[in-house]
Structures are given as structure tokens and as C-alpha cells.
Amino acid sequence: MATARPRAGRQKIKPPKKHGPNVSVDETWIKLRHNIVEMLNHRAAHLSFEENHRYGYNMVLYKNGHMLYEGTCGLVVENLEKLAANDLIPTFPSGSNDDPIQRSQEGETFLKALRKLWEDHTAGLYKLKDVLNYMDRVYTKSAQVPEIWDKGLLLFLKHIIRPPIDSHIISAILNQIQTERDGFVINRSAVKGCVEVLLQLSEPEGQSVYKRDFEPAFLRESEAFYKAEGEKLLETCSAPEYLSRAESRFDSEEARTHHYLSASTNAALRHILEDNLLTPHLSAIINMPNSGLDSMIDLDKLNDLSRLFKLFMMVPDGLQTLKRATRESVIRRGRDINSASVPNDGTDPPVDEDPGGKGKGKAKARPTPASQTLTLALKWVQDVLDLKDKFDQIWSKAFRSDRDLEGTLNEAFETFINQNEKSPEFISLFVDDNLKKGLKGKSDTEIDVVLDKTILIFRYITDKDLFDRYYKGHLAKRLLNARSISDDAERGMLAKLKLECGYQFTQKLEGMFNDMKISHDTMDAYRRHLGDSATQGMDISVIVMTSTFWPVADNSPSCTFPEVMIRSSESFRQFYLSRHSGRRLTWQPAMGNADVRVTFRDKSHELNVSTCCLVILLLFEDLGDSDFLTYQEIKSATAIPEVDLQRSLQSLACAKYKVLKKHPSGRDVNSDDSFSFYADFSAPLYKLKISTVASRVESADERRETKDRIDEERKYQTEACIVRIMKDRKRMTHNDLINEVTRQLASRFLPNPLDIKKRVENLIEREYLERCDDRKSYNYLA
Questions:
Q1: I need a surface site. Which of 335, 425, 563, 762 has the fewest CB within 10 A?
Q2: Radius of gyration in angstroms for the set of CA atoms belonging to the chain, rounded to a whole number
Q3: From the centroid of its chain, how far is CA 18?
Q4: CATH of region 319-343+362-520
Q5: For bias kind Basic residues, which ranges apply (predicted)?
């Protein structure tokens, strides 16, 4: 049998010495106990880790784990009590100091002492955990007790974070937070260190001390603070300042939870801020006199409005409150604009024919009532556009282009614009003014901007068919009198209207442009036809208007032409009818104009006048300078309707260029006036334009007449729409038919359901429809 021998020069390795039956357990514990105390007091540098680990290992191995576990816990408790008595309890805040700075410093000292005690305790636990590793792996699992690290935390919780110390801890942290909320600077790291302790300490069921004890107390204190804060700010601050301070509170609390509190507290804390700073005071903030929403809008405080939107969007009722207040603000401003567009009923001041006796007998210029109302109409549209621009800027820059608020703004503008019954006419007058002179010198881009803004306002009106009537009349005057400054702009506006309302809306307007082109070609052919045999005395230029396209009434008034005009008009009539069969020409003198050379005593002038004015002037051709024609004689000789006659005479005798003299003098034409040729008339220019009242706001009588015509047209349009729908559907319920008719007619006007019902009844009587047996539906009768 071979015998193994150690090699020369190598020492034999001996197994570690074990505790045998003759080794005392008490002696082992005494040694280990001494060493544990040294570890807890941080004097372990001279100790042997292997030796202490072997002591713990042997005690567990020989069934003395309970003695080791309980003894170690007892030593930890003794160390905690010693540390608390020596280092922590002496730093308790007195609680009687009224100085916030000193009170904060006392709390900071206490919190630092607690954190130091925690670090001291956990440093000792780390050493014990390493030394008693075998006990943790074997004994604690079989005995179902916490490992020494976890037990050490529980002992810290039991002997340190318990009355009376726990109340001091929570009070100290809350005091530091309150001090910071009051605007003082604190040592955040001291608070953060203690909060981390509370977060790491948990009960056996798993809830941290922070969640169970500190957070509820902190939230209660916060709610009480911010409830009082909201009421105080509401009493002492303006709306912008309130919003600024509220925003600052939100930011500071978020930073607080980020830097030294738990992030899990942020949501609950945010709700407290919302419920106490915002929700109860929404209406009070937004309606604050001299500083609320209206004031911010008036002063263009976009930053304050942006802050208001941001804060209001945080709470459920905020958006609705803001929408309601914004809508009321827009409508109130719109009503002010509507009120400003109503002319005063006061009488005009008298004209001073020669103020001071130093003039040359010329009347001082002053606006006429018609021009005043036109100015008000143009100002109304411009004010609405300015208001729209203002709120568009607020919506995009302050309200972050929120779609709900966009709908509210559109609804508000639609409301007050349609409250002004003259809005369709005003918008048409605004377009007319711009297309005649307002776009002069502007680039294509600037023209598009003006037209686009006009379409924005047009989009809000519900009576688009009423706008169509006014626009057609204004467009006709621009085309007939060659007053449009840009053909491209005219067609651009037409394209925008077509895009907005469809082809049917602009069909007649496009027909007017087409008539102008055809008329130009016709006149070229007419002049070639005349050749050298042109009618002497008058050169005629005719625009042939299709009656269904142009705003021409079937019973439009005419007048008695003088012989020279009759010869020219008959010549063209014969030429035109020779080229077109089955057509009838009706002259429209009220829509024409003429250039006439008039010789006065000093010199001659070329006057541009309306056709009616020309007819009147020709009456004075063979009269002497001192001869008179009475109003009634002129009316009888010309057969011009009284309204047009008064306007024409007013243009010739009462306006800027007085080529006729009115007797007696004055601005108004009466039926007992008489007129004579003003031979002494002179003016610095050779060519003069004597305009009748151009685009103007309708009078009350004219408006009633227009409304009656529109109502009549709507009846036909509604009936045509009903028949068109029923022809396609064959059978429909009453409600479905009402809804479909409303939808299809909305592009021209908003029909009243009662009016639709009347049209249905009318169609039933005329046997286009029949009522079904259920009395709730209709059938179409082919």
C-alpha cells in the first residue's frame, strides 16, 4: 500500500479549527458580541473577518442560531438607543421660535442629525450582513424571520421612526417646505436625505413610511395652504398676476417633487393645486374687472392669455369656461360694431355757402347722408376684419390653435354678423369699394389677402342669396361704368365665391362677364357695319345684357329720349336684330353714361354724366341763359322716374360741379323748384365727371322691397329643392325631408322649417306630392 508523503519544502495545509463539544457557546458569543459592538461603533479595522464569520457560522451550525439572531438584534437596538440619545434627541426643534429663518435652521439641524444616524446605522448593518451571511442563508429562512439587513431596518423604524421622534421628523420636513413656500431658501439636500430614509423604511406589508405617514400629512398641509392662498390671491391680485403666481406655484411644486420629494406625490399634489387655485376661481379670474379676459384682449397681452389657456386647460371645467367667456367677449364686441354702423338720426348741419364772406361763393364740402352711411358700412366690415385678425392672432399664438376654441370663435362671429341685417349689403359694398379703388397700387398678393379676408366674413353670413343680389348689382355698375380697377381681381373674387358656394352661385355673375365680352365684339362689328355712314351727332356704345344674368327688372323704367339719341339707338337696334332673331331689346338709361361737350360763357368742358343727366341737359340746349324749366316740366319732358330724376338734378345742380342753377338754392330737390343753365360755370379741368350717388346703403323702403323679392325667390328655390329631392327619393318622412332641404339650401340661405312645411303643403295642393297614410311621410307624384 502506497503512502503519500508531503513533498520537501512545502508546508501542510491544516483545516480550520472547529468548535467541538469542548468549546463553550457562551465563550463564542462573548467574543462575537464584543466584535459586533466594535463593528457598530465603526472600530472594525483591527478585527478578522474570517474569525468573526467562523464564530457566526459555528453558532448556526451547532443549533444556536436563535441566540445569535436575538443577541445581534439586541445589540443593534442598544446602539440605536445610544445614537438617538446622544445625537438625535438633543437636536429636536424647540417649536417655540417665531423667526422662520431660525425655525428653518433648527429643523435643518435635526434632519441632518437624523440622516447621520441613518447612515451610521446602515454602515453597521452592511458589516453585520457580511459577517452573518451564513445565518441569513440558513437560519433566517428556516426560522422564517427577516434577514439581518431587513431586521435592522425594522428596528430603526421601531425605535427611531416612532413617537415622539416621528412627529418631529414630519413636522421638521413640513416646516422646511412651508418655509420654502413662503419665499425663503432652505437646504434641500437635508430634506431630501430624510425623505429617502422614509422611502426606504417599509412596514412588513410593504408600504413605505413616506406613503403611510408623511405623504397624507403633507397633502393635508398643502390643501389647507393652497385653499387660503387661492382666496388671498383672488382678493389682492389682478387676473394676470393671479395667473402668473398660480403658474409659479405649479412649477415650484413640480420642482419640489422632482428634487427632494417622491415623484409619486406629484399627481396628488397637482390635483390639490388645481382644486384650490383654479377650479373654484375660474369665473372670478376670467371676469375680473379691468384685468380679466376682456382687458387682456384689449391690451393684446398674448403672454397672459397664453398662460390663462395653459392653466385653464389643466382642469375639466376650464375649457368650457374659457369658451363661454370668449364667445361672450366676441359677441359683445361685435354688437358694439353693429351699433356703430347705425347712422345718427340727427339732421345735417346747414351749408355755409360763403363762410366769413371771403370766399368765392363755393359751398364748403361736407359729407352727404348717403356717403355717411356708405362710410359706416365700409367701417363696419373693416372693424369686423380687424376683430377677426385680433382673435385669429390670439387663437394661434395664445390658445395654441385649439380646435374647440376655433369652433367657438366661428360661432360667435356668425352670431353677431347675422344679427346685423345689413351685413350682406355691407360686405358687398366693401368688395365694391375695394375693387373700384381700394386695391390701387397693391400687389397680387395683397389683393388676395384682402379678398380672402372678405370671403372669411362672407362665410359667416347665412343669407348668402341676399349677398348675391347686392353683389350682382354692384358688379353690374362696375362693369357698365368701367369702374373696376383690375379684371384679374374681379375674376379672382368670382373664383373664391365659386369655391365657397359652388358653380350655381356664380353662374349668373360669370354670365355678366361673358356679356361684356360679347358686347365688345358686337360693337366692333357695328362700327364696321356703319363705316363712313356713321350717325352724325352721337357716337353710341351699347352693352347688351342678358336679362336673366343682370339685375334688371322686367318693368324697369325708361325715359323719353331726344331725337339725336333716338336715331343712334334705332340704328343699333336694327343692326342687332338683323343678326339675332327672336330677341327683344329694352333700353336701360338708368344704367348708362355719356360724355358730352358743353360750351359755357368762358370755355367748354367735356362732362361725363349719366344717361338720365344727358337727357336733362339736352333740354337746355336751345334755351337762353335766363330761361327756366320747372321740375314738373323736366319730369313731363323726360318721363324719368321721380327718384332717378331727383338724383340726376341733384347731381347737376347741387353737387360739386353745378352746371345747372337751382331756384331756390339748396341741397335738396323739391317738386316746386325750377332750373336754368349756369352759363358762368368754370372749372380748372377740361374733363369733369358729374357722378350720381354711387354705391350706397339701401334706404328702409328699398330694403323692404329687396326683402320681399328675396322672400319670393326663396319660395321658388325651396319648392324646386323639395321637388328635386322627392323626385330622386320617391318617398321620405317629414323630418328627413326638412333636414335634407335645409342641408341643400344652406349654401344660399338658412330656411325656416315652417316655411319648408308651407312649401310642401303648396306642392301637395298642386299635386306634385301626396301625403302618405301614416301622415308622417310624402310620396312623389310623377
A1: 563
A2: 49
A3: 87
A4: 1.20.1310.10
A5: 7-20
What are the tens digits of pLDDT across the range 382-408? 999 999 999 999 999 999 999 999 999
Edge-to-edge strand list for the sheet holding 777-780 = 731-733, 777-780, 769-771
Answer yes or no: are the C-beta atoms of 502 and 614 closer than 8 Å: no
CA distance 42 to 540: 121
Those residues whose C-beta lies under 8 Å from the C-beta of residue 73, and which sit 6 or more positions away, are 151, 155
SS3 of residue 733 by DSSP: strand
Q: How far is CA 22 from CA 25, 28, 720, in A?
A: 9, 12, 120
Local confidence band at 362 (pLDDT 50, 70, 90 cut-offs): very low
- Distance, in Å, from the CA atom of 67 to the CA atom of 453, rounded to the nearest integer, reads 91
Contact 543, 519 (CB under 8 A): yes
Asked whether the predicted pLDDT for residue 222 surpasses 80, the reply is yes
**The domain made up of 18-162 is a member of CATH 1.20.1310.10:** yes
What nine digits make up the cell of 74?
Answer: 439586541
Burial of 530 (0-12, 13-18, 19+ CB in 10 A): middle
The stretches of 502-544 forming alpha helices (DSSP H) are: 503-530
Q: What is the pLDDT of residues 604-657, one digit of tens each?
A: 999 988 888 999 898 888 787 678 889 999 989 988 888 888 888 988 888 888
Burial (0-12, 13-18, 19+ Cβ within 10 Å), 428: buried
Q: Which residue has the higher pLDDT, 7 or 589?
A: 589
Residue type, 545: M
Domain positions in the chain: 18-162, 319-343+362-520, 521-589, 592-689, 700-780
Domains 319-343+362-520 and 592-689 share a fold: no
Looking at residue 532, its pLDDT comes to 64
- Kindly indicate whether the domain formed by 592-689 is annotated with CATH number 3.40.50.150: no
Give pLDDT, residue 1: 40
What is the band of 359 on the pLDDT scale with cuts at 50, 70, 90? very low
pTM above 0.85, yes or no: no
Which amino acid, one-letter code, is at 240?
A: P
In angstroms, the CA 383 to CA 301 distance is: 20
Q: What is the pLDDT of residue 700?
A: 74
Residue pLDDT, tens place only, 670-685: 888 999 998 888 888 8
Whether 485 and 440 have beta carbons less than 8 Å apart is answered as yes
Is the per-residue pLDDT at 290 higher than 60? yes
Residue whose C-alpha is closest to residue 737's, from 758, 760, 755:
760
Q: Residue 381 in contact with residue 425, Cβ under 8 Å?
A: no
Q: Is there a cis peptide before residue 664, judged by omega within 30 degrees of 0?
A: yes
The residue-averaged pLDDT of 700-713 equals 80
Question: Where is 325: in which H helix or E strand?
Answer: helix 318-340
How far, in whole angstroms, is CA 93 from its chain's centroid?
55
What order of strands is seen across the sheet that includes strand 593-599?
Answer: 593-599, 604-610, 687-689
CATH number of 700-780: 1.10.10.10
Largest Cα–Cα distance of the chain, in whole Å?
Answer: 171
Tell me the three cell numbers of residue 252: 415650484
As given in the structure block, the three cell numbers for residue 726 are 322627392
Whether residue 351 has pLDDT greater than 60: no
CA distances from 546 to 432, 494, 522 (A): 22, 19, 14
C-alpha span between 559 and 587 (Å, rounded): 9
Please check whether residue 746 is in contact with residue 461, taking contact to mean a CB–CB distance below 8 angstroms: no
- The whole-number average pLDDT for the span 444-467 is 87
Q: Which triple of cell numbers denotes residue 229?
A: 392662498
> Is a pLDDT exceeding 70 seen at residue 422?
yes
